[in-house]
Amino acid sequence: MSSETTVGFALHDVARMMRRDFDRRARSGGLSRARWQVLWHLAKHEGIHQAALAELLDVAPISLTRQVDNLEQEGLVERRPDPNDRRRFCLYLTEAAQPALDQLRAQAAHTRKRALEGLAKDDIDALKRILDTMRSNLCDRNSEEP
Question: Where is the HTH marR-type domain (predicted)?
Answer without folding.
Answer: 4-136
